[in-house]
Amino acid sequence: MTTLSDVAKKANVSKMTVSRVINHPEQVRDELKTSVFNAMRELDYRPNVAAKALVNNRTQIIKLFILEDMDTTEPYYMNLLTGISKELGKEQYALQLVTEHHFDIGGCDGYIVTGMRHSDYEWLQRLERPVVLFGENRLEFDYCDTDNTLGTKMATEYALKQGYQQVIFIGINVKEPFEYSREAGYMMTMQKHQLPTEIKRFSNHSHLAMEYIQSQWSQLKPNTCFVCASDRLAFGVEKALNLFNADIPNDFGVIGFDGVFLNQVATPKLTTVQQPIFELGVQCARMLLAKIAKDGQPQGIEQLAPTLSIAGSTRNDNL
Amino acid sequence: MTTLSDVAKKANVSKMTVSRVINHPEQVRDELKTSVFNAMRELDYRPNVAAKALVNNRTQIIKLFILEDMDTTEPYYMNLLTGISKELGKEQYALQLVTEHHFDIGGCDGYIVTGMRHSDYEWLQRLERPVVLFGENRLEFDYCDTDNTLGTKMATEYALKQGYQQVIFIGINVKEPFEYSREAGYMMTMQKHQLPTEIKRFSNHSHLAMEYIQSQWSQLKPNTCFVCASDRLAFGVEKALNLFNADIPNDFGVIGFDGVFLNQVATPKLTTVQQPIFELGVQCARMLLAKIAKDGQPQGIEQLAPTLSIAGSTRNDNL
DNA sequence: GGATATGGTGTTAACGGTAACAGGTTTAAG
DNA sequence: CTTAAACCTGTTACCGTTAACACCATATCC
């Protein structure tokens, strides 16, 4: 391993100058800078992360708290993790997963928290390092999330554009901001078109949505589209409709929300609000690193636009 | 942050003694040891990872290479990651994900590699730090994996025990050890019972298995069980059988392999060979840490027994 | 009883990097 | 032309930990 000293010798300067070229390049003459850069290249210099961490009192570790039960949303996370990890890797940060609320053994430079519920608020506030949430909140935490309202707006607009006369919203019965936002997108769009709204809510399990459709089958009118707050619920709706040999997408449309895995295995494949999970991971990481660099200053919020992934569960102009 | 020196002062010894209590306790008198332990507890001492890493020329980072396309096996990985991460965390190691073959920027103390294909052999061999594979291989790499042969043995035995007269194996057409092992478990069991074997192979996509069943439907005899090399294929088989309103599980049985997510969303839920993915992650990590501690010495292989998760896609004595 | 091992502890010098300060040179101002 | 400010670069000390060695007791041997 080549060190600062090696580079310094090769470039005929002191260690300190080399260090400055890396961290405060504006303080060094251009002439020296180029010769230092050359030396670094020739020797294939890579800074020693541990040494830097030691002197800066950093750990180069970011902890990712996954507070919700992973099994319920599992496929989701891999993309998030990949995004976070990729971005952190660029700055030589490493990731540590924390799934239980076990004690914070070993330090870290910051936290990314996902699946926060309102009850977690208290202990999150006590954390002594910068925190960024993945997922909307109405508190003062910095966060990244999909633009949930935009997502259901897009879904509802699309359903109407495809000519479905009734649009029913199948929501998740949790009192969390992301759900409110998704419902809001639906409501706003329906009101804009002066149409009546109808919202049903269930725990996020496919069989509940399925049972609902089964119980309501006789009252369902054709030409209805179900805009769902998750792919899970949409999956259940579709399964139930299939049981009655309903004509999807001509008589009934189904639109999910998430776009991770489940929409792919449904038959027909689900039209869904595709969240940019990977990019959200990248953004979370970026925001956290910025916050660390700026000594914990608030970084605000970042909402990324989802895309509507169109598949066989809704009518489609273009087919 | 309390340091070694703080502890040393409190216990009236030198830093070195404290360090020895941690790393070479056998070299320290019991009397001193206890007083050092007390001091550590009172001051809530946590070793500084960066300092330790610096002096030991370690990074405390493990890289996880995910070589296969994640989208195909996605739900799988979260459990693996959690297992690995949990175990690494205990020893203050952090994880770095590497999904593209991008350059090995920044060092690490070891690698865990998953999704290795035969073509990756060459560059893997060149890695300069200890490597442990997740997944069978017939080369000299240390690895952890499910006992694949045992898995299909269990599945096939179970199918026969439930009285299915024909058992057909639906395999994945890749030339990889895990597939050979799964086929072997099926073959051995059938031969043991002196029954004829039948193996079909497809790429690991549900629609291919689905199309196969559809094309063969007229020739399929009731009382047949399909033992599949993946839940994906099993899912396809089941979907096709459902299309014909076949009686699952009475006329046809379906058994998958993996037990991550997909088996849960199938209707009826899939009986499947449940891999202990989380534990495999833990084992991988443990093996790698042992290898690092022993300066890269081979650690052999570790095959964990899967369990048969019984659900509605097969007949069941107990129901 | 003096030489020789043995076990337990402290001292010193690194590991690779950076902040803070010191010192030298150039530029600008009066 | 002097003096102060601005600019660059080097020196020193330290971040927290450990290996290697030095040292001093005590136990062991002939």
3D shape of chain A: elongated
Task: Provide a count of the helices of chain A.
Answer: 12
Helix content of chain A: 40-55%
CATH T-level fold name of the largest domain in chain A = Rossmann fold
Number of domains of chain A: 2
Report how far the terminal alpha carbons of chain A are from each other: 60 Å
Q: Rg of chain A from C-alpha positions?
A: 25 Å
- SSE topology string of chain A: HHHHEHEEHEEHEHEHEHEHEHEE
User: If you average the pLDDT of chain A, what whole number results?
Assistant: 93
**How is the quaternary structure best described?**
homodimer
Task: Please give the number of β-strands of chain A.
Answer: 12
Spatial strand order of the main sheet of chain A: 2-1-3-4-5-11
- Class inferred from helices and paired strands of chain A: alpha/beta
Into which percentage range does the β-strand content of chain A fall? Answer: 15-25%
What about the largest sheet of chain A? 6 strands, parallel
CATH homologous superfamily title of the largest domain in chain A: Response regulator
CATH A-level architecture of the largest domain in chain A: 3-Layer(aba) Sandwich
Most extensive contact = A-B, 43 and 43 residues
List keywords for this structure.
12 strands; homodimer; Rossmann fold; alpha/beta; 6-stranded mixed β-sheet; 319 residues; DNA-binding
Characterization of the model:
Two copies of one chain form a homodimer. The first copy, chain A, has helices at residues 4-11, 15-23, 30-43, 49-56, 70-90, 121-126, 148-161, 177-192, 206-216, 231-243, 262-265, 277-293, and strands at residues 61-66, 94-98, 110-114, 131-134, 143-146, 166-172, 199-202, 224-228, 252-258, 271-274, 301-304, 307-309. With 319 residues, the first copy, chain A, is α/β, with parallel strands linked by helices. Chain A folds into two domains: 61-146 and 277-304, Rossmann fold (3-Layer(aba) Sandwich); 148-275, Rossmann fold. In chain A, α5 (70-90) links the parallel β1 (61-66) and β2 (94-98). The longest helix of chain A has 21 residues, at 70-90. At the A-B interface, α4, α5 and β2 of A face α4, α5 and β2 of B. Chain A binds a DNA duplex (30 and 30 nucleotides) through α2 and α4.
